[in-house]
Amino acid sequence: MWDGSGGFRILKKERLTPVTNRFVIAAPWVARAAKPGQFVIVRVHEHGERIPVTIADFDAAAGTITVVIQEVGRTSKLFGGLQQGQEVRDLVGPLGEPFHAARPGAMVIGIGGGFGAAALYPVMRLLHQAGASTEAILGARSRDLLLLEQELSQVCRQVMPCTDDGSYGFKGLVTDRLKARLDELGDPQAVEVVAIGPMSMMRAVAALTAQYQVPTQVSLDPIMVDGTGMCGGCRVSVGGQVKFACVDGPMFDAHQVDFAELVRRNKMYRQEETQLNAAQA
User: Fold this and answer.
1) Residues 6 or more apart from 77 whose CB is under 8 A from it?
2) What is the C-alpha separation between 257 and 279, in angstroms, rounded?
3) How far apart are CA 134 and CA 193, in angstroms?
4) Which terminal residue of the chain, N or C, has fewer Cβ atoms less than 10 Å from its own Cβ?
């Protein structure tokens, strides 16, 4: 049985929701180079698969990075089972292009769907530190699945939680709350949106903001596989050109992304994933 030796030590583990953990990991070289929007490739043990994980926070002085893992598939469940003091076998990064504001000085509304809030946090912190006016809309099925409201409230002038079941905050979808907020502002063209979360959510946000002519960026990390551009699994059409989410992104102009193509690609291996999860149950 693998004992967690020979890798990157977990300095802190924190349970955020029943299926989500936050890990602070010692990775000095990665922490010194990391920027908001980037990701790492991790391997839990010697014979495990490599998976891309967005950097949720980093501290160059302390030499640490933070990742948030939602237990969905076999590897994420193995990662979720690691404890403080154990080690991740391999960790490579930072990878991908960092986030860049489309219009410096614009008010920015960040949309975090589910555990996408973890990737949203360093982006909103960067904007806040640069002097931008920032707000956040967070979405989850229920209150117990809502992530990082407190952390985002420290870098946003207001955080608007949304739950599908109405157990907390606004009852409804993040797009419903975003539409209401854009109408409240009166001048939506002075706004920029950053959306990170499930593919269906980002697609819906892009469709809404296109109506308001609000510049919008999305993170296409859900379709990444190997993180190097070699496998072609994260190939995407952006503005009619072929891009790779892992090397050209993961942040892209939402209104240029071919979401119909992305949704088809994202479903390609769903049957195999279901069979593997069933075999491991």
Assistant:
1) 71, 280
2) 35
3) 10
4) N
Q: Which domain holds residue 67?
A: 8-95
Report the CATH number at residue 21: 2.40.30.10
> Terminal CA-to-CA distance of the chain, rounded, Å?
19
Q: pLDDT digits over 117-168, tens only?
A: 999 999 999 999 988 999 999 999 999 888 999 999 999 999 999 999 999 9
161 plus 140 within the same structural domain: yes
CA distance 175 to 263: 18
Non-local CB neighbours of 197 within 8 Å, separated by 6+ positions = 111, 112, 113, 114, 115, 116, 117, 139, 174
User: For residue 279, is it within any domain?
Assistant: no
Contacts of 237-240 with C-beta under 8 Å, sequence gap 24+, read 237/261
Is the CB of residue 208 less than 8 Å from the CB of residue 180? no
Read off the tokens for 213.
């002519």
Burial (CB count within 10 angstroms: exposed 0-12, middle 13-18, buried 19+), residue 49: middle
Residues 190 and 250 in one domain: yes
- Looking at the fold, whether 35 and 115 belong to one and the same domain comes out as no
Beta bridge partners of residue 17, listed in sequence order: 20
